[in-house]
Write a structure and sequence with these properties.
Distance between the termini: 45 Å
Shape: globular
Strand content: over 45%
CATH class: Mainly Beta
Number of helices: 1
Order of helices and strands: HEEEEEEEEE
CATH topology: Lipocalin
Helix content: 10-25%
Structural class: mainly beta
Number of strands: 9
Number of domains: 1
Strand order of the largest sheet: 1-2-3-4-5-6-7-8
Length: about 110
């Protein structure tokens, strides 16, 4: 009985093609987010996040946040806490963004320490 439960647990874990994006592993994964009206990806680096949206790649330095993690360059802001996020881009504020692990992308190592 224990063996068969372990096998079921292992099969369920094996169903995912990759581990979830982990901000603690800089540069390894591009985490996908879905919001009403926009989809984008974020690669977490040491003290920064790179937002991939609408054919653009925007590097945002990390700033202090009362809660969660916040990145901004003054014009573009990305904030996340757990599975939720918001993005302020081109004067538009996209709220209620959620992670979408099915669209996370593993990035190849680039050799620059990210």
């Amino acid at each position: 009985m224990i063996l068969s439960l372990s096998a079921v647990g292992a099969a369920a874990c094996g169903a995912r093609s990759h581990p979830p994006a982990d901000p603690a592993t800089p540069g390894a994964w591009r985490r996908a987010y879905d919001c009403t009206g926009i989809q984008f990806g974020v690669r977490f680096e040491k003290q920064a996040a790179v937002v991939f949206v609408a054919g653009r790649e925007i590097r945002l330095p990390q700033v202090k946040a009362a809660s969660g993690a916040k990145y901004t360059d003054g014009a573009v802001t990305f904030w996340s806490k757990g599975e939720e996020a918001l993005l302020e881009l081109d004067g538009m504020l996209y709220r209620s963004c959620r992670t979408n692990p099915a669209h996370d992308v593993q990035e190849p190592p680039n050799g620059d320490g990210r």
